[in-house]
Task: structure prediction
Amino acid sequence: MAVACVSGGAQGIGRAIALAFARAGYGVSIADPDRQAGLETIQWIRAEGGDAMYVNADVSSPDDVAKWMRLTEAELGPPDALVNNAGIGHTVPFLELKPEDFDRVLAVNLRGTMLCSQAAARLMAAKGSGSIVNIASTRALMSEPDSESYAASKGGIVSLTHAMAVSLGRYGIRVNCISPGWIETRDWQYSERAETPVHSERDRLQHPVGRVGRPDDIAEACLFMCRSAGFVTGQNWVIDGGMTIK
Ligand code: NAD
Result:
């Protein structure tokens, strides 16, 4: 059985990614600090006949990441796929941005991606193959006011993806990233944009496809990157309904 690790897989886009890999026959290992949501997700997968495990872990902690990989290898085997999906947002006027808040966003979004990739790549290298997909954001390419921490972390993920793709190719490991546009999840639903019908309608009109994204749009792309895109590495796949080309 192939094995997929999904960080932040307890809910939102990560849950859809975990479900997509499980439905494709992967054993799925989820790392997430939200225990209740994590257990719900693996119960859901198991109810469909899939194989899944949950590890309570914060991706910014080297010890937690090491624990996640150790438990995954012991229970399911070494990973064939890793999706670095865990991420936090942060919006504050730039003139009020605190260094500690900037560091926290970078620690989860960027350092977490590096730590999980390194730990998984050690196991993938030993068997000579693997695929890593990092979830960046269109915020790496275009910005809105007051989103410096998030934008910097996601821009860093795009550059980290290039660098890791070059370093890990020799071990048979491909590394790509996906930059979603607006996806209907917890963040989007609770944002000012969704609460205000005008903003919500504006968001829809912003997309040439006429809708905001769904978690499954991203999940299917992750699966394609890992299963089928054997000659693709170091790429940033923008999945945004055409928003950034408009
Ligand atoms: P979400 O908040 O619904 O889910 C994020 C998950 O990550 C949660 O289960 C949370 O518990 C987990 N998480 C948070 N901190 C963690 C940590 N330190 N270690 C491990 N897990 C942690 O968010 P989402 O909208 O599903 O976003 C998922 C990813 O997609 C994020 O990286 C986000 O930046 C990115 N993204 C989202 C959108 C969007 O519109 N929703 C757009 C572009 C990019």
About this structure: Residues 7-8, 10-14, 31-34, 37, 58-60, 85-88, 108, 112, 135, 137, 180, 182-183, 185-188 surround nicotinamide-adenine-dinucleotide (CB under 6 Å). The chain is about 50% helix and 15% strand.
